[in-house]
Amino acid sequence: MDQEPRKLKNNRLLVIDEDIQVGPLLKAILEDSGYEVILESNGAEALRNFRRDGRDFDLVITDQVLPDISGFEIVKELKKIKGGIPIIMCSGSYPFASPDYQGAGIQAYLMKPFGSAQLLQTVARHLAA
User: Fold this and answer.
1) Cβ atoms within 10 Å of 99's Cβ, excluding its own
2) pLDDT 10s digits, 3-19
3) Residue 94 confidence class, pLDDT cut points 50, 70, 90
4) Which residues contact 101 (CB under 8 A, 6 or more apart)?
5) What kind of fold does domain 12-128 have according to CATH?
6) Where are the domains of the chain?
7) 10 DSSP assignment
């Protein structure tokens, strides 16, 4: 039986998802596992937040398609601010090949819908890396 991976202590995550159901659900799952989560539904606001507090974030989860800026543009800007931060991209409609996201500086890609175990395992793996 697979066990849920243990999370690392004191990790702060930035989650960017405009969906009024998905974003809060991701936040709740991650917080229930002990992570501190800042949820942003607007890409531009998420970037402002990250520019202000980027050193305080340990990992970012972003949707690929946002109304104001693409997930790829967010990744590009995040990497300028904090180059080594792990980024997980999610999408429900635009899958792309592994080399595409790795070349963009994204450590993992989750196709929606995904389960809480897959989310938590992916986060824990990339925080430990």
Assistant:
1) 8
2) 444 444 579 999 999 99
3) low
4) 89, 108, 109
5) Rossmann fold (3.40.50)
6) 12-128
7) T
Cα torsion angle, 108, 112, 115, 120, sign: positive
How would DSSP label each residue in 76-111? HHHHHHSTT--EEEEESS----HHHHHHTT-SEEEE
- DSSP helix/strand/coil, 40: strand
Answer yes or no: are the C-beta atoms of 72 and 104 closer than 8 Å. yes
Residue 42 backbone phi and psi in degrees, to 5: -125, 125
pTM for this predicted structure: 0.87
Q: Which of 17-21, 25-29, 69-73, 92-96 has the highest mean pLDDT?
A: 25-29
The set of residues, in sequence order, having a beta carbon less than 8 Å from that of 22 and lying 6+ positions away, is: 63, 112
